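F.,

This is the one I mentioned.
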């Protein structure tokens, strides 16, 4: 490894699988109880209704199973931490594919089918080294599972806010989501001038400039995991989070507005 290059973060594949499966289950349970009025509400994501958003979440699990059903790729092209930057150009394609794949069936049926397919596919592929052939770029199953924590945690929050729900979030899923998006920030703006703290899950250094070595860093950003996830995905603007005291930023280099969101 070249001097100064940070070793990539590792995740426990078994814990990530369990978190993804459990989080999908939490969403499925909540969706089954949604009323027609809740399903018709705007999701806050373009022209999607809550029903569209819920169907998209079912597709997330179903498409993972579909990816495992395809022949494997040979070599991984991207890693989990690079994934956030590869998604923007595919947003329309993914949305259209999701609409086509899940149209015409009641939501509970979609979730039951997706959960069964996902469980069967993961049981048949216990090793995370398998390389999936994906639109976003070929990726190991282990890395792709980490990105699923981001999708599920973000969209769980979207559902909670749009439909007035309180779907629980698995701690392991929230931790992985937080860490992946923090590492993506460090990849986007490499350096050591700013320390970003998202307790209790992540601390990263980023932004070019004098590197902090000891004592209190001169440039510090601190926020909670939920606010960080919303900032990183464009659900909350930097200025809005500062004004609401959901993020603190001290030091002349601690303004991250120009670096966010990382994905949307």
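My design for it:
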């Amino acid at each position: 490894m070249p001097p100064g290059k940070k070793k990539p973060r590792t995740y426990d594949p078994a814990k990530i699988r369990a978190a993804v499966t459990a989080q999908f289950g939490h969403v499925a349970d909540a969706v089954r109880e949604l009323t027609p009025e809740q399903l018709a509400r705007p999701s806050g994501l373009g022209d999607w209704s809550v029903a569209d958003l819920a169907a998209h979440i079912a597709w997330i699990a179903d498409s993972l199973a579909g990816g495992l059903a395809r022949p494997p790729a040979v070599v991984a092209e991207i890693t989990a931490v690079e994934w956030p930057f590869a998604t923007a150009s595919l947003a329309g394609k993914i949305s259209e594919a999701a609409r086509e794949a899940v149209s015409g069936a009641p939501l509970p049926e979609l979730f039951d089918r997706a959960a069964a397919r996902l469980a069967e596919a993961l049981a048949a592929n216990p090793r995370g080294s398998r390389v999936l052939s994906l639109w976003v770029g070929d990726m190991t199953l282990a890395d792709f599972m980490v990105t699923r924590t981001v999708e599920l945690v973000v969209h769980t929050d979207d559902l909670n806010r749009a439909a007035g729900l309180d779907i629980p979030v698995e701690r392991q899923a929230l931790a992985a989501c937080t860490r992946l998006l923090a590492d993506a920030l460090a990849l986007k703006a490499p350096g050591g001038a700013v320390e970003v703290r998202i307790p209790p899950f992540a601390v990263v250094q980023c932004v070019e400039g004098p590197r902090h070595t000891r004592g209190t860093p001169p440039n510090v950003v601190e926020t909670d995991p939920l606010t960080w996830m919303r900032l990183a995905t464009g659900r909350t603007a930097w200025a809005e989070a500062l004004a609401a005291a959901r993020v603190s930023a001290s030091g002349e280099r601690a303004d991250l507005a120009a670096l966010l969101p990382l994905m949307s």
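The longest strand covers residues 194-198.

Talk soon.
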